[in-house]
Amino acid sequence: MIPHWVRNLAITTALVFFISLVFPVVAGLSYNTPSFPKWWGVLDAGLAFPPAVLAFPMLGLAQGKVIKQAEEETYRAYRILIHGIFAMLTEMPARHWFCAPVTLE
Hints:
The chain is mainly α. The protein has two domains: 1-65; 67-105. 70% of the residues lie in helices and 0% in strands. It has three helices and no strands. It has helices at residues 4-29, 38-62, 68-90. It is flat, with a radius of gyration of 18 Å.
């Protein structure tokens, strides 16, 4: 059974991450970023730091408690997403987006 405070830390980490995700999404969708107030950049950078700090305790607490299937699915999703991002950044054709299937050993 997972202690209550660990669950609260995980939820807090996820919430802070999604709140910090709003800033780059809005900036990416905006056509006029110079019109943003000065505090926007400061708040963006300030909110990007806590999820990174909160991720380390979560990694330590979850170590060895995740089932193999969840670990493999997460790693597969990570590989697909990171290659999709690289493909969009480099304008690579869609056939190169996905790598060969991954198996963790």
